[in-house]
Automatic annotation (TrEMBL):
<keyword id="KW-1133">Transmembrane helix</keyword>
<dbReference type="GO" id="GO:0005886">
    <property type="term" value="C:plasma membrane"/>
</dbReference>
<feature type="transmembrane region" description="Helical">
    <location>
        <begin position="184"/>
        <end position="204"/>
    </location>
</feature>
<feature type="transmembrane region" description="Helical">
    <location>
        <begin position="40"/>
        <end position="60"/>
    </location>
</feature>
<feature type="transmembrane region" description="Helical">
    <location>
        <begin position="72"/>
        <end position="97"/>
    </location>
</feature>
<protein>
    <submittedName>
        <fullName>Energy-coupling factor ABC transporter permease</fullName>
    </submittedName>
</protein>
<dbReference type="InterPro" id="IPR025937">
    <property type="entry name" value="PDGLE_dom"/>
</dbReference>
<keyword id="KW-0472">Membrane</keyword>
<feature type="domain" description="PDGLE">
    <location>
        <begin position="245"/>
        <end position="335"/>
    </location>
</feature>
<feature type="transmembrane region" description="Helical">
    <location>
        <begin position="137"/>
        <end position="164"/>
    </location>
</feature>
<keyword id="KW-0812">Transmembrane</keyword>
<feature type="transmembrane region" description="Helical">
    <location>
        <begin position="247"/>
        <end position="266"/>
    </location>
</feature>
<dbReference type="Pfam" id="PF13190">
    <property type="entry name" value="PDGLE"/>
</dbReference>
<feature type="transmembrane region" description="Helical">
    <location>
        <begin position="309"/>
        <end position="331"/>
    </location>
</feature>
<dbReference type="InterPro" id="IPR002751">
    <property type="entry name" value="CbiM/NikMN"/>
</dbReference>
<keyword id="KW-1003">Cell membrane</keyword>
<feature type="transmembrane region" description="Helical">
    <location>
        <begin position="7"/>
        <end position="28"/>
    </location>
</feature>
Amino acid sequence: MHVPDGFFTVPMSLAAGAVAASGVAYSLRRARDELDDRMAPLAGLVAAFVFAVQMLNFPVGAGTSGHLLGGALAAILVGPYTGVLCIAVVVTVQALFFADGGLTALGVNICLMGLVTVLTGYGIFRGVGKLAPRNRTGVVIASFVGAMVSVPMSALAFTGLYAIGGTSSIDPVTVAAAMGGVHVVIGLGEGAITALTVSTVLAVRPDLVYGARSLVRPSMLRTASGELVQARQAEGGHRAAPRLRPFLLGGVAAAVVLAGLVSFYASANPDGLERVAADYGFLSQAQDNPLGDSVFADYGVKGVGDERLSVGLAGAIGVGISLGVGAVVTWSLRRRARRRSGAATIAEPLTPES
């Protein structure tokens, strides 16, 4: 659902840009509370993984394809505010380096694929989680439902925005029905991918799933006196946490394989938005991205004749860029949070001894 340039009027594009900028700015402030020494590097990996999986368009019938939006997945793994930042990084990298999605429509795309999917997907995930079993199965079920619903909600949000500020007139009810219908099917794929990913991480490192933190209990040891204490306390606070590097390296490798190898076999059919736009007469309003002649435009490397190699290199490079930008953003926030915490500790007035 990458909206191209030309679909929206200038006022609507500016308004969506302002909303997107405000949402990202607010998320930058609130993400500091979500990020710790585990989540900061994981957020970069989530951005890279979402970029990779978004290259894997899957068929949904009638000559139409769909792909992961990723907002619900990112929010469940690293938290809603950090999730917004991850999707914003991915959408921006796609627009600037790969000419995927418009430049003037960047704010619209961040709103639809970042803000709407995170708000609805994570909100439904939390709501279903209260009704589902309080175990890993319940988290996976809630992940599926939240991700599945987030896609048609994003599609309906697009229809509403287009009815208000689109560059051509449409019948909102008819287009909403078409967008909602095809994106319900795409949502099933989104839910399956999200549930599978969350289930995999839960099986390997449940402590890295933000949405499942209530299920992770600290390890307890019984002391010589019979008292139960946390393992960290029992060992003087020096118990080594599970190593994060192998998990991160494995995640990066998986993203590179998906983007660099598997993406070549993705469906070439138009996605749900493009199909509906063609069927209802507003696809002609689309304009090419001004960076359409750039080195990596359309997920290929300019000058590389072999198509398989070209797509693979572009995918791997995109994973690297998304990983790097995501890591820089989140580590910067983490360092700033540490400095503020340290400054607050130093500034705390000393209490005189009695």
